[in-house]
Amino acid sequence: MTPKAELVFIPGPGAGHLISAVEIAKLILDRDERLCISVLIMKLPMDFGVQSYIESLSSTTRLQFVDITVDDKTTAGFLSNKETFFMDFIQGHKPKVKDFVHNTSFSRSGSRFNSQLAGFVLDMFCTSMIDVANEFSVPSYIFFTSSASFLALCFHFESLKKEHHIDTSKYKDSDEDLTILGFKNPYPAKFLPRLTTDQTVVVTRFFDLVTHFKEMKGIIVNTFAELEPFALQSLSVPQIYPFGPVVNFNEGGHGRNSQSETESIIKWLDDQPESSVVFLCFGSMGSFDTEQVKEIAIALERSDHRFLWSLRRPPPKGKMELPSNYENFQQVLPEGFIERTNGVGKVIGWAPQVAILSHPAVGGFVSHCGWNSILESLCFGIPIAAWPQYAEQQMNAFLLVKELGLGVEIRMDYFNDFEGKYGPPDIVGAKEIESGIRQLMANGDKNEIRKKAKEMKEKSSAAMKEGGSSYASLGLLIEDVINNVSSSPNTIDCSIFK
C-alpha cells in the first residue's frame, strides 16, 4: 500500500494562531487524500479563549489533535520571567515534540495504512522547533499568520539589525519616511510596530526566529496574490505559498455567547436596512478605559449612522486576562446614551464576528486590524476604518489604507500598551472617530472604498477556487510535501487517527 505523507503542525498557543492553523490543515486534507496531519497543541496557563475551541475539535481518520502541554510546575518556572515567558514556553515544549515523533514513528505496527513523516509546519513563533525537524531529517515549513507585507517588514528589519548592525530604536517617535522593500509607498516610522524599534530581549529573540525563516523549505502565508501582489513579488527566499484567505466561517465551539444572545444580535441586524450598520469590534483583547469609551459613544451618536458596538470591560491592571462582558453598560456609557440611540444602535459584549460581517445589513467595520479580522472583512466585501491596537496592527492599517485603498484611518499610530511600559494610550477624540465613521459609510455603494472592498470579495473567492491563484499555490505545496516522502526514513502509523 502506498504510504501517506504525514505533516506535523505546531501552531502557536494563541487562538488566532491555532484556529487559522487548523483551518489550513483542513484545507490541505480536503485537497489530497494522500496526506494526514497531526496538530500538536500547547495550552497557555491563561485561557485567552482557546479552551472552548479545543474542546470543539475532534480527530478524524487523517487529522488528529495531540495535547503536548508541559506540566504546571514547568510552566510556573517559565512565568518567573514574564518578559521572555512566551518564547520560553514554546522552547520548553521541544522534548514533548521529540517524544511524539519518536513514539509515533517507531513503536506502532499493523496499521491499516502507514504514512511517512514528510515535514513540520511551524507557527511563526515556533521556528526554534526546526531543530527537532532537522533531528528527524525532514524539512520545515512556516505558517506565517500575518500578511505578506509584514513578512517583508520582518525580513527588512532583520537585515538592518543583524547584517547592517543598525540600532532601529532611532526610528521610535521619528517623523522619518522609510523605504522598505515590499511597500509601494514611503513608510512613516511612526506607524512601525513596536517590536521593530524596541531593544528588548523579546524583540531580539523574535528576530532570531525571523533568521530561522530563511532556513525553512517554504513559508505558507494566509494571503492571496490579488490582495498583496507587490509584497509577494518582493519576497524571494525561501519559497512562498500564499493560499488564503483561509477563514474559520464556523464560529461554533469557541464563541462566548449563548445561542440566544447570538440570535438576538442577528435578529436586530435583520431589522436594519442593507449596508446601513457600522460594526465596531476590537478583537479578543480589545477594550478601552471609560474616558475613551465615552468619546466613542459621542462619535457614534453624532455620526447619525446605525451601529453595532462590541464593548468589553478591560482586565484588571497588570493581569494577563482577556476583557470580559459588562454586567451593565450604563456604568461606562454616557448618561442616557442607550435611550437616545434606541432603535438605531445596539451595544453588545462578545461579538460573533463572522456572523455579523456576513450579514447584509453591515456596511462598514471599525477594527483593530488584526490580520484574521481583515481577511474576514474582505471575504464579505466590508471596508474597514482602521484603529490598530498592538502587535503588527499599525502596519496592517497602513497596508489597508495607504497601500490597498481598502480602508480609512481613524488613527494609524495608536498604540494600546497593555503592560504600561509606555504610559497610558492617547485618547482618540470623538471628532476623529466620527470623521472616520462618516468616511467609511459615506455615499453608500458609490463609496470608492466600498467598491474596492466588493471587488476584493470577488477576487478572494476566485483565488480559492480551481484555477485560482491560491488553489494553484496550495497544489504546489502539496506536491512538494508528497515529494518529501521518498526521502524520509520515518514511518508513522495513522491508524491512531480515529
TrEMBL record:
Keyword Glycosyltransferase found: yes
Keyword Glycosyltransferase among UniProt keywords: yes
EC numbers on record: 2.4.1.-
Pfam family, one: UDPGT
Cited CDD domains: GT1_Gtf-like (cd03784)
Molecular function GO labels: UDP-glucosyltransferase activity
Sorted UniProt keywords: Glycosyltransferase, Transferase
Family stated for the protein in its record: Belongs to the UDP-glycosyltransferase family.
Record's protein name: Glycosyltransferase
